[in-house]
Write a structure and sequence with these properties.
By secondary structure, the chain is α/β, with parallel strands linked by helices. It has helices spanning 12-23, 55-59, 61-71, 81-89, 103-106, 113-125, 134-140, 188-200, 216-226, 243-247, 264-271, 284-287, 302-313, 316-333, 336-365, and strands spanning 2-6, 27-32, 41-45, 75-79, 96-100, 128-131, 150-152, 174-179, 205-210, 232-236, 252-255, 276-279, 294-297.
């Protein structure tokens, strides 16, 4: 069986899905506007006209359509609705599976009437839709046809890799950290402001941020303006394989996003028994249960975030209790092998249904 993905090749979640199905025996091709190698798959990098920004998706639509027709996939899987999902509708290939990931459904439809129409069009052409969490699925339903199923398929965690590890008890500062792209919606400026208020009150904490992105320079400058340069560590971008060892050096995980479709970083942290402090927004409450596996705060509220961190800094027993409950939640709902098996069933059902439909049409025509 051959599957063609329309998705950003460098994105870790693209790579995880593609590598899984390639290892399961599928012939996997990835059509991507950003270059990257993916083990077991052939990546077709669509380059040129970068100056056009998002409009280059439309400018290259005919080229992508020709490529998809040449590949003749048994299944076309578009990841991210308003870019690759829309592009997939122009390829004229079925079955089409479209996965919504976050801001593509939570924010994009409201940018303009045109974005709203693009959203509805992309969903109307999909034969099935997946979303990473319940809240994301519910946000998708108003834009999708009633007859098209929206199935929740989370990004699971490899519990053998993300497992509890002993933490050093050196008597040093409590380490609060996060792993993610340094972009505006991640809210790391709010975390730095919360940290500044705590450091100013003499609370022994250190902030560690692993990731890179457009906000790196701004956040570095903000740390200097707040006078907490010595208390903040910017690790830069790390490989996904190194995330467990990075998390092992934390005491508290923070996800202060203002927009977050799911929050896979939070469940990876929870799998390692870290208590999570996060924003009560979009998909984060799907993966962080307030008062049970972590503490939720209003997005953008540095004071509330600081208060929640302070609660955990001063209570090692609470940190351990929340962390243990977080691990149990991940074991119950977010095992990678179970989530992958769910996606495998969706692939099989789509391919089977369209194979049967084609056979019936051939018989009728004859």
């Amino acid at each position: 069986m051959r599957v063609v993905y329309l998705a950003d090749a460098p994105y870790i979640h693209t790579r995880r899905w593609v590598e899984h199905f390639a290892s399961a025996g599928w012939e996997a091709h990835v059509v991507s506007f950003r270059p990257a190698a993916i083990e077991g798959a052939e990546v077709h990098h669509i380059h040129g006209l970068e100056r056009l920004g998002k409009l280059r998706y439309l400018a290259h639509a005919r080229r992508v359509r020709r490529l998809v027709r040449q590949l003749q996939p048994d299944l076309l899987h578009a990841m991210h609705l308003t870019s690759y999902g829309f592009l997939a509708t122009l390829c004229g290939r079925r079955p089409l599976l479209t996965s919504v990931w976050g801001t593509d459904i939570l924010e994009a439809p409201g940018i303009s009437p045109l974005h709203g129409r693009i959203t509805r069009h992309a969903l109307a052409k999909a034969d099935q839709i997946t979303a990473t969490g319940l809240r994301l699925a519910n946000a998708t339903l108003p834009y999708a046809p009633e007859a098209t199923p929206v199935t929740v398929v989370p990004y699971g965690v490899d519990l053998d890799r993300f497992r509890p590890q002993p933490r050093e008890t050196t008597g040093g500062p409590i380490v609060v950290g996060s792993v993610g792209r340094l972009s505006p919606e991640k809210g790391f400026d709010v975390l730095l402001r919360a940290a500044a208020s705590l450091v100013g009150d003499g609370v022994p904490i250190r902030i560690v941020l692993a990731g890179d992105g457009p906000e790196r320079e701004k956040l570095t400058r903000l740390a200097g303006e707040l006078g907490i340069v010595e208390a903040v560590g910017f690790l830069g971008e790390i490989e996904h394989a190194d995330v467990p060892s990075t998390l092992a050096g934390l005491d508290i995980f923070a996800i202060p996003s203002t927009a977050e479709g799911f929050g896979v970083a939070a469940i990876e942290a929870a799998a390692m028994t870290l208590p999570v402090v996060g924003s009560d927004v979009h998909g984060i409450p799907d993966v962080v249960t307030d008062g049970r596996t972590g503490i939720l705060t209003p997005p953008g509220d540095a004071g509330a975030l600081a208060a929640s961190i302070l609660t955990l800094v001063g209570n090692a027993e609470l940190r351990a209790t929340l962390g243990a409950a977080g691990r149990a939640l991940v074991e119950e709902r977010y095992r990678w092998e179970e989530n992958a098996a769910q996606m495998e069933r969706i692939y099989a059902q789509l391919v089977e249904s369209f194979t049967e439909e084609t056979a019936r049409a051939t018989v009728t025509k004859g």
